[in-house]
Backbone:
């Protein structure tokens, strides 16, 4: 991947200082393609907005809804002059015309493959339904672009600790052929669990430009 155009490596960001920057309907409307950017992606209702709000300790930063598919824009949140978090539209969202789904599939692929300042992808999956076809598609796009992916198995609080651990091991086993680019962890926005691991990954990507995941 092409290195971002930024004169010096930035310091680790203050996630609690995140602020909404702008929304975009397509790649051409995104902020300038420079600096460091990490995108959050996942199926509708996988908990993307909740994860961002939990990470930043701001319940109102990213809009959440019980209705799948409410996030249909690419939303950018500024951490510093050169660092951003990005909330991508939920893919596979329900109650949306097929033409809209196709257009957003096109825009998501365009963003993932052509956004040069994108340093990594946080892929969120409901721990009870991981690695669905759309998740596999997103993984395929990222791996094709040699982009690191860190999987958050969200809503981990919905399972007992032992069952959650087993689910994590099963996901890691299925991804064992791509351990150089893909990593995974448990996450609960409700219980605010998993922040430390997530922040370690984000810090690496947002301060060093690129990273490789490890399934430890």
Residues:
């Amino acid at each position: 991947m092409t290195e971002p155009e930024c004169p010096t490596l930035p310091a680790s960001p203050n996630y609690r200082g995140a602020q909404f920057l702008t929304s975009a309907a397509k790649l051409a409307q995104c902020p300038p393609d420079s600096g460091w950017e990490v995108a959050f992606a996942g199926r509708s209702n996988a908990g993307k907005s909740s994860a961002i709000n939990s990470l930043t300790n701001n319940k109102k930063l990213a809009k959440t809804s019980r209705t799948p598919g409410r996030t249909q824009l690419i939303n950018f949140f500024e951490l510093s002059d050169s660092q951003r978090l990005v909330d991508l539209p939920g893919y596979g969202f329900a109650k949306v015309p097929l033409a809209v789904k196709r257009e957003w599939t096109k825009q998501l692929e365009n963003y993932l493959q052509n956004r040069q300042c994108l340093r990594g992808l946080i892929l969120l999956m409901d721990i009870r339904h991981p690695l669905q076809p759309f998740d596999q598609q997103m993984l395929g796009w990222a791996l094709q672009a040699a982009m690191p992916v860190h999987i958050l198995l969200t809503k981990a609080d919905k399972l007992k600790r032992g069952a959650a651990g087993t689910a994590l091991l099963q996901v890691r086993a299925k991804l064992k052929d791509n351990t150089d680019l893909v990593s995974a962890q448990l996450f609960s926005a409700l219980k605010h669990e998993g922040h430390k691991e997530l922040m370690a990954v984000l810090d690496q990507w947002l301060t060093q430009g690129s990273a490789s995941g490890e399934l430890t």
User: Anything to note?
Assistant: The chain is about 30% helix and 20% strand. Residues 98-114 form the longest helix (17 residues). The chain has one domain: 21-208.
